[in-house]
């Protein structure tokens, strides 16, 4: 999940070089005898297998040979392939925060009219996640965010506030990977912090909100969990936190839908609920959106978008059941069948207030400083104010190095 987000800084240089080599030589014209499409996917093997079945059905009905392949390469490998004859026509299943990097490298075809109907999606944020500078470059196929897991053997009711979670947690345990910026961001955003200013759908990387007063309040809450309240150890990791909750050593745990199956398999008596308020404010957790997009270098773009649209409309159950991913289509989220899924229904409720991770190239300058400085704050090497100021400074430096 998180691994795919941390695209190395080299990618931008490599991508620009690749674009200069390819130039404008690739034609977007489609030939009637080129009835073959290649789809790559970063989804799990089980999901890819099922998606392939849907793709083959469409292929048979439309006289098109379709190859659906599991892509295990990194982002640099994809960029190089996409700028050669070895790249796919379609990428099905990749976190939306990579879109800015690919769009800057001129690897994304703009979504044509009729493929994406904004009213079909469960929230506006889902469409925002695939929009860059007012243009859509991908189709949302699934979403994820973080919520509060609770052990029903330790607590009977879900607290309405994080302050109460902390109070109960001192006795019965409250745990999560604090130094991971993905689950921690919501506490910073709850008080008015933000990564890059959102100006009506356009992100401004020159306006970083991780150092304002609201952000500092969020950092203070995170530090208190470790230093003052001693709820979470300084060496906490996601695996340790998950294991502690699974073992029944914590009443509360913050994570995403990827943990549901392992807890079910382990027989944990747990529930899931949207994140309680902090200082009376809604916790706007990060949202990750799995997307599908068409390569700008595909010579069969019209046909590729037809298949992309078909797959996005007919794979929600696969991504839900095989990948524990929250559906994005309003028709699925509002269905009676989905209402029976007690866990994913709660994730969908939290997703309504979640905030998409930045999708511009500058997002790559965020992850390292944001996480590392929280870790330094956990060990009392930085105050919340110093953490906020240093994070902004380092992100600005990272952005300047990208130019």
TrEMBL record:
It holds the Pfam family SBP_bac_8. GO terms for cellular component: ATP-binding cassette (ABC) transporter complex, substrate-binding subunit-containing. Residues 1-18 form the signal peptide. It comes from the Bacteria. GO terms for biological process: maltodextrin transmembrane transport; maltose transport. Keywords: Cell membrane, Lipoprotein, Membrane, Signal, Sugar transport, Transport. It is found in: Cell membrane. GO terms for molecular function: carbohydrate transmembrane transporter activity; maltose binding. It is a lipid-anchor. Belongs to the bacterial solute-binding protein 1 family. This is Maltodextrin-binding protein. It comes from Romboutsia weinsteinii.
